[in-house]
Amino acid sequence: MSGRASHSRLALLGGTPVRTDSWPQWPARGPEEERAVVAALREGDWGGFPLPNTRAASFARAFAERHDCTDALCVANGTVSLEVALQAMGVEPGAEVIVPAYTFEATASAALFAGCVPVFADIDPETWCLDIEAAAALVTERTQAIVPVHLAMTIADLDAIGELAEKHGLTVLEDCAHAHGARWRGRGVGSWGDAGSFSFQTSKLMTAGEGGIVTTSDDTVLDRLHSLVNCGRQRPEAAEPAPVIGHNYRMTDLQAALLEVQLERLDDQHVIRARNAGRLRAAIENTDGLTNLRIDDRVTSQAIYQFVFRFDTEAFAGIDRDVFVAALQAEGVPADGRFYEALPVSELLRPEPARYPAWSAALAAAPGPDCPNAARAAYRESVWLPHQLLLGTDTDVDDIVEAVLKLQGSAGDLAGLETAEIDRLRQARSAR
Fold this sequence. Notes:
By secondary structure, the chain is of the alpha/beta class. Helices cover 38% and strands 13% of the residues. The protein has 13 helices and 13 strands. The strands form 3 sheets. A 7-stranded mixed sheet has the order 1-9-8-5-4-2-3, with helices on both faces. The protein has a 3-stranded antiparallel sheet with strand order 7-6-11, with no helix packed on it. Strand 6 (183-184) and strand 7 form a beta hairpin. Helix 3 crosses helix 7 (219-229). It starts with 30 loop residues before the first helix and ends with a helix.
């Protein structure tokens, strides 16, 4: 890999950035998406009713088959998919639901919306997925479900999670918002638990702007999902209709038209990302102060929603992770550090006691354990690069590496900078 810029002046401090060219566009789109949307537009049947509408039904069948499930149901987004999945699996209001402490807040807030109590388990420091021993220590007589999250480019240990769930009689909901098309021991994610939840929000590996889907191979779960998503209406094929008060969480057929094309693109995109990720991982391995996440040997097909690595401040002249990220951005490489908060201290997860009484009672009884691995990842170590950076060429990857090497060679120039000073430097650059 080239290191020609490793000791030149940093762009954040007024130097020339490594990269000024644009990156591969996201969402990926072409005439196929245009034709699909125009066809749906002309047909005039745009909505989500009847559930599932024609295109949503077709897409759900294809998506379920792709992930080795018998059924799937499209929904409005990837948060409600978690909420209705928990309810459809029979998790009762007031029950405890174990979730990892490092993930998007929706994993926990969906449990709250379902009337449950999210309980935070720390993460494995090498994969940043749910730590099994930490989760096992949190199981009580009130625990009814566990929600492993397949994070960024890793897959939670589905074998160990299955054993834990079987031992304690827990239901398993896989949060697969980052993991479209990923496979564990040759079988699709979303098929290992009682249900799987996927997101189609704009940044995800497949997108219709918004949207979500729940996968399952359990007819009872599917029957309940239909009622919960479709205003309480029963699925015609339901074996034992059980009326519920439902929401309107339907996906439109305009969205489904986009997603049918996005699904066709997925495998080819996986190949490109995997090739470029391998090149980038090799460079990270050879860079002091940076460490790759561990990818389990049982991951037989990897989905890379974000390329994530660990940052060690000591190898970069003691600068803070956030300073490193700001300098990397200035070199022309999109990056994030505080992509996720540690959920026990997240400002986006502060429920009102009157609105979530089960959560409040649980906190009063036991505030919950510390989650040091999650806090270290969130505030000191994590560097996130969006997946579209890996949809380009070897040169694109080499630019990322060159920017990192440049920062390493000149990190001392950033020593002592505080957040306010970094913000001032950013503003000065944008004003030029």
